[in-house]
Amino acid sequence: MKHSLHLLTLLMAPVAGAQDLFLDELRGCSSADFESWAAPVDGEWWSFAGAEGVSYSNAAIEGRPGSVSVDRYGLGLGLQREYSGKGVLGLDLDHSRQTYNPNWNLGGIQQPLAEADHYRLQAAWYDRRSESLTWYASARAEAGAEARVDGAGALGEPAFGATAGFELQVGEDLGLELSFDAQERLDDDLRLTPLALVDWRVREDLHLGRVAGGYGLDYNHDLETRFFVSVDRDERQFRLGSEAGGDGVVVDEETSLRAGMIWQPEPDLCLELYAGKAGRQLTLLDEGTKVDAFQVEDTPFVGFRLSFGPGAIF
């Protein structure tokens, strides 16, 4: 699973899909039918909020002793302003905390990460002045807290990234997205990633495209409930402090396959429940050199995401 899903990299950029999936990401719900959200008033700022939790079972490290389990919890806040006839401006800030079990060693350091905080700030513009050709651009900054045995630490230096892309509407129910992402990596070279995706309304109740934070299929069961299967990829970087017992950067890369349901009983409330399997690789870098790395066996996980729509905060 690790190698095949790795090709389906999920960029931080929003998607300009056939159903304006970009707006779904800003509004916090992953529903393909964003029209169920209340429409913001042109020229006014609207707020969106969300919380997410996911727990990964303990899994053995491939080719060496030890095992890794991870729990992650996060909160996010988004702001959106719509400009009539032009496009949408979005601002997003999210924070997550990951906790790791102590039964692993990386580059001679016993459990370099115990509790680690990660922050991500993003600004994005989605231009929709044309119905057949739309484009978007985003810039982001992210940083991880220094890992320490007691879980406390100062925020490390930020890493910056940007994405630009467009979607061509080639049919009533078919769109093609092309994008290019640039991501700064601490103690490593700049990563450049091109991506091509298809957004296809297969039929009225079946959609292929961005869904539930990933890329896959979602099925509309009724007005409130949909089911999905998707792949996802995520990466977090953490600068180690002297208290962690070493120097360098730990990169946590995760590729997952998940299935679940999205329930939206109210226009401004959305709940996702999901389960799946994830492949994980942990890498220790020091001044551009890979010191050590290992992969973890495919790990079962369960999680949830709760999203509040327009006006959730103010």
Structure description:
This protein is mostly beta strands and 314 residues long. It has two helices and 16 strands. It starts with a helix and ends in a 6-residue tail after the last strand. Residues 1-28 and 30-39 have low confidence and may be disordered.
Quick gist of this model?
The chain is mainly β.
Features of this protein?
314 residues; Porin; disordered N terminus; 4% helix
Structural class estimated from helices and strands: mainly beta
How many alpha or pi helices? 2
Termini Cα gap = 42 Å
How large is the share of residues in beta strands?
over 45%
| Number of structural domains | 1
What is the CATH T-level topology? Answer: Porin
The spatial strand order of the largest sheet comes to 1-2-3-6-7-8-9-10-11-12-13-14-15-16
Top CATH class: Mainly Beta
Gyration radius, to the nearest Å?
Answer: 20 Å
SSE map:
Layout: H1 2-6, H2 21-27, E1 45-60, E2 67-83, E3 87-100, E4 105-106, E5 109-110, E6 115-127, E7 133-144, E8 159-171, E9 174-183, E10 191-203, E11 206-211, E12 214-220, E13 225-239, E14 249-266, E15 269-286, E16 289-308
Antiparallel strand pairs: 1-2, 1-16, 2-3, 3-6, 4-5, 6-7, 7-8, 8-9, 9-10, 10-11, 11-12, 12-13, 13-14, 14-15, 15-16
